Amino acid sequence: MKNAASHVWRVCFFVPLFIGLFGGLSRAEDENTEPKLTKKPAVVEMVEADYPKALFDTGTTGRVELKITIDENGLVTEAEIHKGSGFAEFDSAAQEALYQFKFSPAHIDNEPAAIQIIYGYAFTIEHSVDERPVDLSLQSQPTGRLSGTVLRKGTREPVVGLTIRLPKLGREGMTDEQGLFSFDDLPVGLVIIELNDADHYNLEDEERIEAGKDVNVRYYLEPTGLNENQVTVVGRKLKKEVAKRTLTVQEIRKIPGASGDALKVIENLPGVARTALGLGGLIVRGSNFGDSAAVVDRHLIPIPFHFGGIRSVIASEMIDTIDFYPGNFGAEYGRFSGGLIDIRLRRPRSDRFSGRFEADIFDSGVFLEGPLTEELTIAVGARRSYIDVLIGTALQDIDDINFQTVPRYYDYQLILDYRSGRHQVRSFLMGSDDEMIFVLNEPPAGNAGLRGQLENKVGFARGYLSWTWRASDQFTNDLSVALGRNTLVLNFGPDIRVDNLAWQLTVREDMTYTVSDALKWRAGLDYDGFFGTLDLNLPLPPKEGGGGQQGRSYSSVDFIEVRRDFLLKNPAVWTELQISLMDKRLLVIPGFRGEYDLVIDDYILDPRLTARYGIVKESTIIKAGLGLFSQRPSPDETDADFGDPDINFERAIHFSAGIEQKLSDFIEIDLVGFYKHLYDLIRPVDQTGVNTSLDSAPERRLANSGTGRVYGMEVLLRHSPSERFFGWLSYTLMRSERRRSDAPGYRPFDFDQTHVLTILGQYKLTNAWEFGARFQYSTGRPQTPFVGSVYNSDSDSYEGIPGEVNSVRIPSYHRLDIRLDRNWIFNTWILSAYFEIQNVYNRSNPERLNPNYDFSSASYTSGLPIIPSLGIRGQF
Amino acid sequence: MLSRCFWVLFFCSLCTACSGRDGDGPSKLNDLRVLGLLTDTPEFELVSLFEMPDQTLAVSVIDFHPGDVSGEQVDRRYTWQLCFSLGALAKFECLADDKVLEMTTDAPSMGLTLDTATLLGLLPDEFLTAEQSPVSTMMDAGQTSDEVCPDGLGETCSVDDDCQVGLSCSSGVCEPMPATSPVPLVVRVTVESSDEQVVTAARTIGLRFTGELNRNPKFAAFEIGMGRLDATELMPADDGCLQLGPFDSTILQLPIKANFDDSSLQSYPYVDDGVCREGDEFESAFVSWYSTSGAFENQVVTTEYSDNELEFETPTAETVRVYASLRDGRNGLAMTCFEFDRVESQQGAP
Questions:
Q1: 3-class SS at A718?
Q2: Is A571 in CB contact (< 8 Å) with chain B?
């Protein structure tokens, strides 16, 4: 029956499913790299299944979906029925045949690797070639050849494993890894060609075959969706943390209000509270905004955003994955007690050069990537704002502010990636620069001394070099070093001066040893050196809670001048075990991190533990984590004049527990409860900030005297990108409080927000049009009211008398953003445009309680009004 | 670097720069206000206080109530407090609640006889016993030279004896004793009007150990419209307001400029980071303007940019009172006021 070929097999669809995508309790993960599918598997040897005779005789047809595992040699090692045909005979026949298939192996990070896919096998009854009526006249006529390439429209990527049918002739073929196909010995004349693929719109064409000639064709298949998420591996990395959220490129690109900016999307995830307009930073699970950090390929970047949040400092195209940890992150990271953003860069594409250009109302950016040699690839990107060019003239003289340099920023990146055998060497250069200069012609009310030129420059440059050596299947070593320069200039009038230059050197040595399927050992060394010049003339910056410093007139602040070099050295060591138990349903990760800080001459030992257990494998996971997290003081905090050399690490105990439930193929819910105990928080010795000593400098300015507690729950109900829709609901219920050691009770944290809700979604109306919307709501932030004031005759200003700290709240924040995307897919490039409206109903969101000149009344500073914007993007 | 404070600082700077612009600003007088606290001299010379006891400290408050212009009689009550304080740093709170000299007047001024006993009686008890206190500082000050920047300043040292008289060894460098008491006297006044408005104001009175005593600055003249008022025609604000005008109410922009008496703005030595420097009040001086009607182009002007303009929105007949205060940046203060009528017909111009 098999050879009679009275049926045809057909690849119905072909979906890579990475091992551990949903369950996270699987095998063979290498966590030292972010794996990326660089080549799909393709059938190189197919075996037709035996058509069950009884079914064939009755004309019964059927279709079986199998989940098959293809090893690194292209052999099928597992074939499970994913969706049966309803006939056991079909299922077993297909299963038996699939075990005999041979594929070209999938490549992950350009190396052969095991992969799991869904494979469709159809049993249909047609006239076989052998059974067709034989036209003897045709057999005697000359023949020709048809060959060609099938490429994806827009991106020109080869379409691999595509079935090409010549229905009139009963011939079928399949595209190879380069998208190539060919048919020999075709009869002369017109042939009809059908191209069928689940990810693309079907195509039917006809070609004229000529005798003795090779007719070469090229087809561009339009994808049913842009499916940008396919280029990003989202789940293969072992899920081991209690709450790690990973986003796909498609989600990042289309979320309203984020303007396609990868890092800004994080603001929409659970655990992240709103900061005030222009303040930037991330408030993660009730920690202060300086307590969370962003790392790029494991090395810290000083600031993740331009001008406190307008844009991230790194092009989204450079990014492979962004993992956001609101807490309980692994022992490999430290020095911060809040959350962590782990940005991993991707390897530039190695098959051909491609690029993109994009522009919107804020800035324009270009990006280009491709291979220089077989082993060496390159990617370059740059972006510059043009707020200064477009609206600079309009801003030149608004009321009392004269802009000399309207806010402008730029950033740049360069990746050189070399891979050969088991070695990978990557060089990465990035930099960012923000500048704004304006003159305050008239001082603000009640602050006669606050006038003059405000000059603000923030920039950094970083050079990274990393070497990854996969010595064996068991052992991988990563050595990386980053050296960079940070510049910070903030001059205001004759008094306020910050002019600092610092160099930062970070070195990491990380290794992974797979002892067995059930045990993996990871360890590393981590050094952070920071040296530069501290040149300041500033009042003590307000600490969280403000206290008595609030309401001071400019003339009454106590300026401190510091001019000295500083050197910080902070070596660390970390290790963790990954123990898989109970048939890999239970994963336990005990970890440990030790740090020593040479400036404060103290060390910390932070134990950490996380565990995940699959109640129902791949669909119901419970998880929990407990750990100690420490944060060293910043250089200004340990300065003898500006801070206090005797202060110590700030500490936090993180506890979280939760459950992940997969509700359907696309929908899952993640529920996490958390509690954080904060202690040894750095606080001013005197809450008023007043030096009551008679010396010029007090004995102590700061002390580790604050405590805090944060508790709440996070919900993420997420619909992963499907053919037409993606979206999520993110909700955080939280209480974050602080207490001074001498205070009777806790008070709300500056950015405490009881409810934070984000609902967003994007729907594909047609292949060209997409619509998205985002709604955000958050409880108003606490503020400290003023209960009176004293007129300061010395300076003609008013000294506000603050009331109970954070005892009132500004009204809640909410807004709606919408976005409409239009795609034009040409054969060799794609043009996209979007129209976005932020704050659709023009909500006047209060951002800050703003007292009048004598503190007798207050009004709210409002946030951004309705902002329509337009952006375009071209890529090839 | 400065990662935890920088954005807060930057944000606060912007917020401060852009705040307080809603509603009437401080230059518009429409409620009970205190515009300044005047003393004969901005500071006392401590040594002379020892040598010439029973000096009188006279303080007057320049306050304003809308009734002052409308003619409505509004009584005011003044509660005065004198104490040692850290000044504006501590929002003029007294160091000790039980070391406060209090009095109440119906007039906007008070006089107090100062002697050493009075001063010592205002010091908190712990300051009298502390090894390093204002008292010991005062005693030490008596042994210092009269120079703010004595010889030997900045020389290296290991103990106090390595330094010349009047200097002490601090962090290996000879530094002078402070020229003024780090804890000044503070005068607080709470003004309560009969229509139940309450305003509290305060100022510091420095106690100088060495160097020349600071003096209050002086206006030289005012240029108002096309006219000019010399200082001799002006009178201190606490003696009433000079009547000018009238002005045509159709004049909606009235140029006003204050000229300073340069001789009243002193230059003075001071020590900064172990180095003797020369300060100049001319650079730190500024003038604040207030009026009962219209709006000043600049609420504050400096010696460098001293031109100003009083702008009216409508040609309304009214009486306008204007105050100007001149501060030298070292607590020295001069105030004056004038009043004029805006009339509907062109009856005259300055």
A1: strand
A2: no
